[in-house]
């Protein structure tokens, strides 16, 4: 079922956001719009400010100029509509799984019965039924990250901010969780900003992929992936289109100073060179428009 994301409203909007740590210029005029129910993946070299960007979105740290808006309202602190998923799971080792999953709800002061119901629902949605009383150390990495995901989902946030959430997992578990994340998102659609070091993951999970420059981080390039909703990841992995885009993004990341060339041919999709290499003209400038 592929409802066009064109019809959705902008959910998150960053406009000209700059961030400094003392003299260190970390984010340079970041402009990003994320639509309701859209999955945006972000690729960028280490240290380019990806985590900083997510922490700003989550209202955990301030920014120096520009605007960060959630549905038109300025983000000035943590908001219940946004939830974060961390690379190293961020579970409390001394709390049982159900307590970890209910943590955000407890902080929000929800009634116990509601917490119990939500914890039950999301524990089951991520496939952890039967492990409610276990401590994190008794579970595999994949199971711990399922719990991290359930904890974020349980708050019923509109926006998930995921900071390399599958980066610490083995390849097979990672692929399973990629599949499951998309299935969960089909069952309960949300906007997501998903940071990753993996080009494959960015292409498979993103409706749109953004590429950042090395520090100070700027959005250098963005493209729609066009694989559509309800996508079959195995099929995509085997497709020529996937291989071409993968090769293209490798080229971009390996050559941060070079002007991005044109996308491999696909008339209905759009890529935008946001920041060029030295002294070049724009190309392929287009509006949005996701293929179904
Ligand atoms: N709290 C902080 N104080 C000072 N410098 C920081 C702080 N957090 C991150 N940095 C620096 O800001 C840059 C961007 O960090 P980060 O956002 O973690 O990058 P990424 O997630 O892309 O690897 C790095 O050079 C890092 O050392
Ligand atoms: Mg980081």
Give the mean pLDDT.
89
Query: What is the CATH fold-level name of the domain at 1-81 and 191-292?
Result: Rossmann fold
What is the CATH level 1 assignment of the domain at 1-81 and 191-292?
Answer: Alpha Beta
CATH architecture of the domain at 1-81 and 191-292: 3-Layer(aba) Sandwich
Largest sheet: 7 strands, mixed
Query: What ligand molecules are bound, each kind once?
Result: adenosine-5'-diphosphate, magnesium ion
Helix content: 25-40%
- Categorize the overall geometry: globular
* Corresponding CATH superfamily of the domain at 1-81 and 191-292: P-loop containing nucleotide triphosphate hydrolases
| SS content category | alpha/beta
Quantity of strands, as a count: 11
User: Kindly, what is the distance between the CA atoms of the first and last residues, rounded to a whole number of angstroms?
Assistant: 9 Å
Give Rg in angstroms: 19 Å
Helix-strand pattern? EEEHEEEHHHHEHEHEEHHE
Multimeric status of the protein:
single chain
Low-confidence stretches: 278-292
**Strand percent estimate:** 15-25%
The number of distinct helices, counting runs of at least 4 residues, comes to 9
Strands of the largest sheet, in order across it? Answer: 6-7-8-3-9-10-11
């Amino acid at each position: 079922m592929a409802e066009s994301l064109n019809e959705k409203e902008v959910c998150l909007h960053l406009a000209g956001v700059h961030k400094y740590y003392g003299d260190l210029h970390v984010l340079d005029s970041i402009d990003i719009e994320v639509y309701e129910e859209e999955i945006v993946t972000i690729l960028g070299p280490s240290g380019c400010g990806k985590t900083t960007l997510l922490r700003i979105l989550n209202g955990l740290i301030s920014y120096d100029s520009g605007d960060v808006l959630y549905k038109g309202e300025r983000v000035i602190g943590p908001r219940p509509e946004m939830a974060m998923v961390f690379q190293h799971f961020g579970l409390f080792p001394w709390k049982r799984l159900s307590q970890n999953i209910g943590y955000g709800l407890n902080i929000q002061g929800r009634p116990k019965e509601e917490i119990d119901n939500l914890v039950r629902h999301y524990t089951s949605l991520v496939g952890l039924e039967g492990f409610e009383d276990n401590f994190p150390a008794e579970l595999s990495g994949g199971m711990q990250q399922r719990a991290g995901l359930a904890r974020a989902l349980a708050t019923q946030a509109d926006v998930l901010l995921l900071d390399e959430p599958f980066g610490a997992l083995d390849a097979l578990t990672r692929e399973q969780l990629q599949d499951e994340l998309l299935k969960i998102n089909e069952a309960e659609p949300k906007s997501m900003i998903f940071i990753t070091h993996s080009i494959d993951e960015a292409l498979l999970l993103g409706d749109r992929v953004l590429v950042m420059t090395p520090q100070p981080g700027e959005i250098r390039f963005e493209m729609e992936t066009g694989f559509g909703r309800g996508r079959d990841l195995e099929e995509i992995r085997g497709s020529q289109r996937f291989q071409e885009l993968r090769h293209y993004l490798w080229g971009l990341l390996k050559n941060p100073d070079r002007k991005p060339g044109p996308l491999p041919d696909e008339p209905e999709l759009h890529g935008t060179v946001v920041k060029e290499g030295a002294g070049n003209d724009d190309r392929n400038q287009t509006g949005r428009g996701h293929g179904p």
